[in-house]
Design a protein that fits this description.
3-stranded mixed sheet, globular, alpha/beta, Rossmann fold
Length: 333
Amino acid sequence: MLSRSRRDALVLDMSSVVCITGASGYIASHIVAQCLEKGMTVRATVRDPTAAEKVDHLKLLPGASERLTLFAADCTVAGSFDAAIAGCDAVIHTACPVVFGAGAAGEQKIYEPAMRGTESVLSAIRKQGGSVRTLVMTSSMSAVAPVPEPALKSEAHWSDPDLQKSKDNWYGAAKTCTEQLVLAAMGRGDHAFGRFVAICPTGVFGPMLQPGVNATMGWIASLAKGAKEQAGNDSMSFVDVRDCAAMHVAGVLDAGASGRYMSLVESLHWNEIFVMLKELHPSMPAVKPCDGEPVTPTKFDTTRMDSLGVQVRSVRTILADALADLKAKGALE
């Protein structure tokens, strides 16, 4: 949610037209909702606009009947985004395959489609002859993960894509390389858009607009049901899906936004996370603390992220809202 002072500083053009790729996804659905709420016209790409179970939650959003159009698009098909991007003022590119446990097959299932999809989006933007003012991309904190980890992590840090590929971390490699693909196009001067903003989310949790339970929220449900007996000696960072979406929207609306922005609250040790989960969901089986001296959670310099003006929810609020949504959807008692 944007702070009042920041909201007032943004210039909201009620006639703005934005294309949102991969619009039926977890984060993207909230981006669609927030863009419609602000009065923008949304041209949303999905794989199959006729698949009711994938798109009906978008059609039911306030403002959708007047200002939402669905387009069929596929990251693996050249020219697939041309129709949706035609006539748009901005593009929010969220589409990226997510395949858990893909292993070596992730190169074909995740990395190559992600790269081709980004190339297709850039091609579609070029065909508009400079009318697209802003490109916002959903990257990931997996693209902000140098080895070894710095004492204070910021947007200046990059992952090593070759190292990610060698470890079959194809999602992380895809996010790192698609960001770099856009930057390379900008360096050549053939990008045909005004500003580029990359939002780099960490673990994203919170209310789901889709009817089903996605993988990350299902994972939270499994933890609350007792999937772990002992905490690992590590830390994890969080961001609420609504706040992450708001950062994407701010990237479009704030003329001063440019470059990379982390999207997170803070990192907590798993000992603390499990204590918090137990407090919020008392029926959760107790989890033993980690062995040995707990490591120090990852530290972040949030100066750039804070400049977007999005007031992020606390980890406790994120987990409380996530558990409440899981219960409302029957995924957790």
